[in-house]
Every structure is written in structure tokens, then in C-alpha cells.
Prior knowledge:
The structure is a single chain. This protein is of the alpha/beta class. The protein has helices at about 10-20, 55-70, 130-135, 150-160, 180-185, 280-304, and strands at about 1-5, 25-30, 75, 80-85, 90-95, 95-105, 110, 125-130, 140-145, 165-170, 190-195, 195-205, 210-215, 220-225, 230, 235, 265-270. It has two domains: about 1-110 and about 235-304, FAD/NAD(P)-binding domain (3-Layer(bba) Sandwich), CATH 3.50.50; about 125-230, FAD/NAD(P)-binding domain (3-Layer(bba) Sandwich), CATH 3.50.50.60. The strands form four sheets. Strands 1, 2, 3, 4, 5, 6 and 17 form a seven-stranded mixed β-sheet that branches. It starts with a strand and ends with a helix. NADP nicotinamide-adenine-dinucleotide phosphate (NAP) binds near residues 234 and 235.
Amino acid sequence: MYDVIIIGAGPAGLTAAIYAARAGLNCLIIESTMYGGQITSTPEVENYPALKKTAGWELAESLYQQAISFGSQLNFEKVNSIINDGSLKTVITDENAYVTKTVIIANGAKRKHLNIEGEDEFSGKGVSYCAYCDGSFFKDKTVCVCGGGNTALEDALYLSNLCKKVYLIHRRNEYRAQKHLVELVNKTEIIEPVLSFIPVKISGADSVESITLRQVESGEEKTLETDAVFVCIGLFPENNSFSDMINLDSNGYIISDETCKTSCPGIFVAGDTRTKELRQIVTAASDGAVAATAALSYINQMED
Ligand code: NAP
């Protein structure tokens, strides 16, 4: 039996593991794909305290090494559900059922899809959700990035170092990204902003050849030739499998506050998957520390 099972090995989950294992808890992290979460697709992290400029994968590797150095175990399995047996919980994966005193859900959030014609058909054939992973396939080509947040602008800047031309397509006439990113984008000639247009269709033969856009006010359509479409339009949580046990908000985020407690005693939440104002690496790491400490208090009370 484990003291704590952490679902997800992003910054929230790995920080929770550092705090839990360091406090002497027997800790298992379960991750379905790779450790690091979203930061693995961030070219450069420059707003994490005490780190100047670090590649996302380097920060992920360092967090992982630190977590396992205190004795946490990481299993690569997909979690399907949690069963609440009163004071104990059972975490069910594709391969195993693990009994634990507490659970910390730190499963992050996934990239949203445009849900337009051609998106699924050309996924992996020019449609991508990760510029850092797939950008090098489009060296010296024309690409477009959809979105107006931090991710879209960071990805457009990253691609501008590789590609011949980067269209940055956004549905409003101003970005929601941080000011310094907007300034950098505006200074980068290779990036051509296409404002107040929404993507309506991705076309091609064997791979992406063009994207059709609609002007938001006039409804007028135009087509841009492009070799790739990078979709960076935000995130969504995947918590449906926990909805019978813990309260979610209308967007599927786990309802919690700075205590990282959920509506189910013994289940805690950390990082982007919970209701919060600011989804950043530093706030995810902070949640991980809070959730692990709350799990320790819960276990101590159980055993009193
Ligand atoms: P985001 O901030 O939610 O931005 C999503 C963007 O996509 C918005 O500009 C939005 O337009 C647009 N959009 C949403 N749905 C769309 C649709 N169906 N069609 C066309 N456009 C659509 O998402 P994000 O950039 O992925 O960032 C997620 C979180 O991570 C944010 O909290 C962000 O600050 C954080 N983050 C931080 C950093 C950093 O600090 N360096 C880096 C990356 C991400 P509207 O503007 O019109 O809503």
C-alpha cells in the first residue's frame, strides 16, 4: 500500500513527489506518456525563479531526477479511475490496481483542438499541437500558428528561427499574450500577423497544403498556402473519469483553492487541472508542495 499516489508527472506532480518523499511518505507517481508535462514542449523557460533561460526539457529532467532522488517511484501507465473505499483509495490503471491512503491528481491539461474540417485528417501530416516537437520537420517551409496566447506567440517565435515564413492567425485584433512576447513578435519580420480571422478548413492531398480563414466581421474567406498548421488555442482538462467522486466546474477543472483539497477527503489536486487564476510552472510547483503537505497532514490525522 502507498501513502500517496500522484497522477501526472508534470511540474505539479513531480514537486508533490519531492515534498512527499522527502517527508518520508511512500510515494508512487503514475504518468501515461512522458514526465515533464507541457514544459517538454516549451523551448525556453525564462520566468521560473532563479533560472535564467532553460530549455523546458532540461527543467523537466532536473525535476524528475530530483523527485526520484528522494525515493519516489514512477510507473508509466494510464489511470482510468479512482475507487473510494472510505479511508483508502484504489487507483485503477490499464495494468494494475494500487491501494493508497491519499491521491494527488496532477494530470495537467491537454491542448484544445480547432474542431474544423481537415484537422483530424491531417493530424501528424502537417497539423501539430507542439511546435517544439515537430517544428524541425518544416525547416525553410511556410507554416501557420493559430492562437493569440503565450503559447502561440512563443511557438511562432520558435518557428521563426526555422521556417521561411510564419503566419500567426488570431481571431481578435489584439493578443492576450504577455507584452514582451507581443513586442518580440512585432519585431520579427518572418512572422506575419493575420488578425481577426478564424480558421475554417485545412486542405491538402497527402499532407497540409493550405488553410482557409474567415474574416470575423465581414465573413469574407481567404486561403493561405502553408505546409503546416500549429494549433495553440489553449488547454482543456481531462477529469471526466473522476467526476463521480469529486466536484468539477463547468469546464471540467477540479474545484479547489489554495489548500489543494478536493470535495473528496484524501484526494488532493495540484497544477493546471484545478480551478485557478494563473496557470504557470511556478504555480503548478507551488500546488505540488501544498498538496503533498496536505496529504501528509491527512495521513497523520488518519493514524491518530
Ligand atoms: P490561452 O492563454 O488560453 O490562449 C488561447 C488563445 O487561443 C487565445 O488567444 C484565444 O483567443 C485563442 N482561441 C481559443 N479558442 C479558439 C478557437 N476555437 N479558434 C481560434 N482561436 C481560439 O492558452 P495558451 O496560450 O495555451 O496558454 C495556456 C496557459 O499557459 C495560460 O495561462 C498561459 O499564460 C500559460 N502559459 C504561460 C507561458 C509563459 O509564461 N511563458 C507560456 C505558455 C503558456 P482569445 O484571445 O480571443 O480568447
